[in-house]
C-alpha cells in the first residue's frame, strides 16, 4: 500500500478526518512535516519553503525534540579561535563554534581569543557541579515543617535510593530544605554526568517525593517549586550554583593590550569596575558582566543546548585588574551554566558537528568530563567576549566596529 502524499494528508486534515497533531500516526515524519507546511502556508499566506530545508532526521526529532514539526530554521555558524584552554577536564587548542545572526559577534570573540592566545592562553575550571530540582510541599504549620526537615536530614540515603532507582547515571548529591510558613521546599541536587540532566533530575525527584509523602504528613503541591531555579534569573543560582559553576581567567601582557586591543590595562580595569560592577549594581542586575549572554547563547545554539537556560548561563561576574607587573588580569565566573554533551539537542547532526569541533561529542571518560570540557570552553569564549568589548569601549571603537560589521 502506497504511503499518502503531503497533499493527501493536508486534504484529510481539512476534511476533518485527521487532526493536525496526529499526522505522524498515518505517514512518515517527512510527509507529515510537509503536510503541516502546506496547511500553515495556506492558513497564513506565508512562504514556508525555506523551512523545508533541514539536515536532521524528521522521524528522530518528532516527539523527542519537537512536536507539530514544520521543518527547520537555519542559523549561520562561525568559528572563533583557536585559543588554548588549560582546563581541569581537558587541555587543548580549541576552535569555538558560534551560531548567531548578530554581525560583529564572532569577530569580537575572535579578537578576544587572539589577545588571550598572545598571552599564553586561558585557564578554566569547573568549581561546582549539580543539577537541581526543588519541589514544594504543604504542611500544617511550622512545627510540622520542622519535623519534615528533620526527617529529610535523617533519611537522605533513603531518598537517594528512591531517586537513583530511576536512572543508571544520575547520583543524588544532597537535599537542602527551605521553610516558608507552611511551605517546605526541598532542593535536590544531582550529578548528571555528561547530560545536562534536567529531565533526569525531574524524574528522579518525583520518585523521591513519593517516598516523602509515604513517610511524612507533607503533601506535594508541585514537583517544581521555582527554588530550583530553572529558566529564570535567580539569586540562589548565583550563590549556590546550578548545572556547572565554571571560572576562566587569563593574564594579557601590557604590550598585547596596547598593540592589539588599542587600550591599556588600567583603562580596561577601570571600565570593568565602573560598568560591570558599579553600573550593574545600580541597575539591580543579577549578572555583573558586559555581554556574557552573547557567548553563551551562540555556543548553546551551535552545540544543541537548551536555549532557554541562557538566562541562567549568563549569570556571571567579570573582574579585571592590573597586575604588579603592569599586565592585565581578567576573569569571568559563570555561576549556573547548564550544559551537556549527550541527550536533548546534542544528538542532531549539525549540533554534533559543533561538539566534534570542540572534541567533546558524546559521553566522556570519565563520565562528566566532556560536559565539563564544554563548560570550560564556553567560559573561555565568554572571557574573550568580555575582554574584547571592554577593550573596544576603552579604545572607543565599539560603534565603528558595529557600523562596519553589524549592518
Secondary-structure blueprint of this entry?
Blueprint: H1 6-14, H2 29-44, H3 58-61, E1 77-87, E2 91-99, H4 105-118, E3 122-133, E4 136-138, H5 142-154, H6 156-164, E5 171-180, E6 183-191, H7 198-215, E7 219-222, H8 235-240, E8 243-252, H9 254-260, H10 265-283, H11 292-303, H12 310-313, E9 316-322, E10 328-337, H13 349-358, H14 369-394, H15 398-405
Parallel strand pairs: 1-3
Antiparallel strand pairs: 1-2, 3-6, 3-8, 4-6, 4-7, 5-6, 8-10, 9-10
Helix pairs in contact: 1-2, 4-14, 6-7, 10-14, 11-14
Offer a quick outline of the entry.
The chain has 407 residues and is an alpha+beta fold. Helix content is 43%, strand content 21%.
Give your account of this protein's structure.
By secondary structure, the protein is an alpha+beta fold. Helix content is 43%, strand content 21%. It is built from 15 helices and ten strands. Strands 1, 2, 3, 4, 5, 6, 7, 8, 9 and 10 form a ten-stranded mixed β-sheet that branches. The longest helix is centred in the C-terminal third of the chain and has 26 residues, at 369-394.
Secondary-structure class: alpha+beta
Output the number of helix runs: 15
Residues in helices, as a percent range: 40-55%
Question: First CA to last CA: what distance?
Answer: 53 Å
* Global shape: globular
Largest sheet: 10 strands, mixed
The ordered string of helix (H) and strand (E) elements is: HHHEEHEEHHEEHEHEHHHHEEHHH
Are there runs of 5+ residues with pLDDT below 50, and where?
none
Number of strands: 10
Strand content: 15-25%
Average predicted local confidence, pLDDT: 95
Oligomeric state of the chains present here: single chain
Using only CA atoms, what is the Rg?
A: 24 Å
GO molecular function: hydroxymethylglutaryl-CoA reductase (NADPH) activity
Pfam family, one: HMG-CoA_red
Catalytic activity: (R)-mevalonate + 2 NADP(+) + CoA = (3S)-3-hydroxy-3-methylglutaryl-CoA + 2 NADPH + 2 H(+)
Keywords: NADP, Oxidoreductase
